[in-house]
Amino acid sequence: MRGAATEAGTRGFRPVAARRAFEEIARQIRERLASGALKAGDRLPPERELAGAFAVSRNTLREALRALEIAGLVELRKGAAGGAFIRAGGGEAAIAGLADLFRLGAIRPEHLTEARIIVGTEVARLASRRRRAADLAALEANVRAAEEATARGDMSARAEINYEFHRLLARATGNPVLIVLTDALMEMTRHFVNRIGYRPNRYVLPSRRRLLAHLKARDAAAAAREMETMLRRLQRWHLGAYGRGR
Amino acid sequence: MRGAATEAGTRGFRPVAARRAFEEIARQIRERLASGALKAGDRLPPERELAGAFAVSRNTLREALRALEIAGLVELRKGAAGGAFIRAGGGEAAIAGLADLFRLGAIRPEHLTEARIIVGTEVARLASRRRRAADLAALEANVRAAEEATARGDMSARAEINYEFHRLLARATGNPVLIVLTDALMEMTRHFVNRIGYRPNRYVLPSRRRLLAHLKARDAAAAAREMETMLRRLQRWHLGAYGRGR
DNA sequence: GAAGTGTAATTGGTTCAACCATTGAACACA
DNA sequence: TGTGTTCAATGGTTGAACCAATTACACTTC
Q1: Which residue of A29, A39, A150, B2 lies most exposed, with the fewest beta carbons within 10 A?
Q2: Which residue of A has its CA nearest to B120?
Q3: B79 touches strand C (CB under 7 A)
Q4: Minimal Cα–Cα distance from A109 to chain B, Å?
Q5: Other CB atoms closer than 10 Å to residue B161's CB: what's the count?
């Protein structure tokens, strides 16, 4: 400080925004989404026209569209009837974001299995209350497919069908938060299993059959118990394999 | 079908990928992250150099970097010591992705409150088992700040401090999946509350005090019960406001 | 020597003007 | 009717240039 008499201090000052142009553009488009002025299926004007409207170069505008595309808000299609279309959000960005965290090593296998027990148990409970006939049919077809894959020794297909079971169950709850979360947990599990290698076990399929019976009977407590028991066995199985594998 | 003798069908054919250049670049960089060749804090070469290495123009390379930046994997800094730095993932992309879903209307308030009950209850249970002295101190300071904000009638600060309580509790579990998920749920709650307006209530703070006592005593069952009861009351409160407000 | 000051180098941000590649629809033709 | 062709629209990519922020460093000043 040089002169106390002229020093006015810096309180009340904030760092200037210095927001990049493409961020401001993406913000404005997001705003129209939140306000309902833009809804799923709508098409934005062509890039050249949008660039003119925002008074930026086409490159800068493209970076803004790229940001929205990665966030899963718009889909870009080439060709005569192409353009930027507003997507009906399916949560792909959130799923990819969690999968990236796992890839970065921020999430360790025991965190993943713990979260799966928490979410999976409550998904089973809610699904048994809300499942419709169509959900039950889809789940039964899934278990049958798993049995067939096991019979012909196709372990890769078996793993995929198992992930799909959890996704179907989550959809039966009708809660999109649980659906997205389950999808993300399965995506992380897939990465994890790819790393340690899939090892078949004998207790999952019988558990599935018991779970289906509870779902059919709408016995929420029994369904939750069955799922929790199965996931805890799976946790010991996975973490054992991880401990030996690392 | 014209000639059954020459018709071979289309089974086994799949649409060709036609991946865009920037996607392939982002994939390669992601791969290095997953393999551990790149880790948090590392700096990628300057854009001009990278563009040369991938044999693409600088614009295309920038779209790849933009994609990685939006995904939260890298951070771009200007200036002499600038460049693309690998970020220590904090899950911002996943959080933003879920918040976008809420903004798009795919997630309705009852879905949000249901998920909060499930996650919050189990977070309280795990936190009471694993909390350390520092967690307890931070939570106590938070509750004190909430009481002060209430005393001076600052409802906006009060709301923020309340969200922070749940985030702190999630951190005490030590599970990054639960941390990211809680952050995302709080972010969605903030949007929701901003829309319907914050209305103070009298039962949250007493519940906080009881919860702190359970945490201090490491009584997991009581902590979970307290949190679940509070969240269910909050659910009725919020949904009631939403029902009248829409 | 310590602290401030100016300057140059580095690097991301943006612009501009092209051209390429894909897509779908209009259209001609058998 | 259907089949192939042409063409306009639109996103994808390129390359060169300049702007703007940031840092490192030599230089001055006390």
Answers
A1: B2
A2: A118
A3: yes
A4: 10
A5: 20
Neighbours of A18 (CB within 10 A): 6
Residue that terminates a domain, selected from B86, B102, B135? B86
Express as a percent the part of chain A with pLDDT over 70.
90
Given a contact cutoff of 8 angstroms between Cβ atoms, the answer to whether B58 and B47 are in contact is yes
Asked whether residue A60, judged by its CB, lies under 7 Å from any atom of the DNA or RNA strand C, the reply is yes
Rounded to a whole number, what is the distance in Å from the CA of B53 to chain A's nearest CA? 21
A55 touches strand C (CB under 7 A): yes
Q: Which of B177, B180, B227 to mutate to test the interface with A (most CBs of A within 10 A)?
A: B177
Indicate the average pLDDT of chain B: 89
Interface check B25 vs A, CB under 8 A: no
Residue B242 has what pLDDT?
Answer: 66
Above 80 in pLDDT, residue B18? no
Closest CA to B24 of B53, B45, B48: B53
Q: Most A CBs within 10 Å: which of B57, B62, B68, B98, as the mutation test of the A interface?
A: B98
- One-letter amino acid at A243 equals G
A166 pLDDT above the threshold of 60 = yes
pLDDT at residue B35 in the model = 84
Which tens digit of pLDDT belongs to each residue from A149-159?
999 999 999 99
The separation, in Å, between residue A178 CA and nucleotide C16 C1' comes to: 48
pLDDT given at position A220:
98
Q: Which residues contact A191 (CB under 8 A, 6 or more apart)?
A: A99, A102, A103
User: Of B48, B63, B86, which residue is a domain's last?
Assistant: B86
Question: What CATH number does residue A46 fall under?
Answer: 1.10.10.10
Are both A29 and A125 inside the same structural domain?
A: no
Residue A18's pLDDT band (cuts 50, 70, 90):
low
Closest nt to B79 (CA→C1')? D22
Is residue B81 one of the residues assigned to a domain? yes
Whether residues B98 and A107 touch (CB distance < 8 A) is answered with no
Same domain, A198 and A101: yes
Q: Cα separation of B84 and B78, whole Å?
A: 9
Average pLDDT rounded to a whole number, residues B162-177: 97
Q: What is the DSSP string of A96-139?
A: HHHHHHHHTTSS-HHHHHHHHHHHHHHHHHHHHHH--HHHHHHH
CATH number of the domain that residue A147 is part of: 1.20.120.530
Model confidence band, residue B130 (pLDDT cutoffs 50, 70, 90): very high
